Amino acid sequence: MRDPDNRPSCTLIVVIALAAVLLLSLLMSVAVMAASSPSEADCGEALAYGAAGPPPARATDLRCEVGTWDMTTYDVTFRLPADQARSWVADNYPDEEPWTDGDHVLHLEAGFEETSDRASTVRVEVTPHADGTSTVTWRAMGI
User: Fold this and answer.
1) Is-contact 46 66, C-beta < 8 A?
2) C-alpha–C-alpha distance, residues 108 and 106, integer Å
3) 127, 107 in Cβ contact below 8 A?
4) Rounded CA gap, 16 and 22, in Å?
5) Which is more confident, 136 or 10?
6) Cα separation of 37 and 78, whole Å?
7) pTM (2 decimals)?
8) Which residues touch 138 (CB under 8 Å, ≥6 apart)?
9) Per-residue pLDDT tens for 85-133?
10) Torsion of CA 91, 111, 118, 116, to 10 degrees
11) Of 29, 38, 45, 86, most Cβ neighbours within 10 A?
12) Which residues contact 131 (CB under 8 A, 6 or more apart)?
């Protein structure tokens, strides 16, 4: 016959099991965040993925990133003189109809047939600044 004081209690086993599950969950979350963190991307490649031409020659503050986890997402931002920013959007997406909100931010959303080398959705915002420039915020998403 076993001594009842020599066996581990059920409570201790449950606590250890829950701690192991929580630790595993934390490790998986960290791995997912690391895998999906955006990284620097080639700007020409990023814009081509969203059916746009290269960044304008006068663009400043150019930043291009790619993130991949369950889908590919490219983010590009740059500044241009305001009239050139609007022209860049119109030239690259002539079949799309942009709209403006109350803050004079130009918005555009374009959809494409998704392929492995082209985005299914592109979103563009052109935000004007008091100095006569605009920030173009561009995002392309696909498989």
Assistant:
1) yes
2) 7
3) no
4) 10
5) 136
6) 21
7) 0.71
8) 47, 50, 52, 75, 76, 77, 122, 123, 124
9) 999 999 999 999 999 987 789 999 999 987 878 899 999 999 999 999 9
10) -170
11) 86
12) none
Q: Please give the structure tokens belonging to residue 13.
A: 């086993």
Enter the tokens of residue 16.
């250890």
One-letter amino acid of 88: W
**From CA 142, how far away is CA 70, in angstroms rounded?**
9
Residue with tokens 């690391």: 34
More confident residue, 32 or 19: 19
User: What is the pLDDT confidence band of residue 71, given thresholds at 50, 70 and 90?
Assistant: confident
The span from the CA of 25 to the CA of 140, in Å, is 31
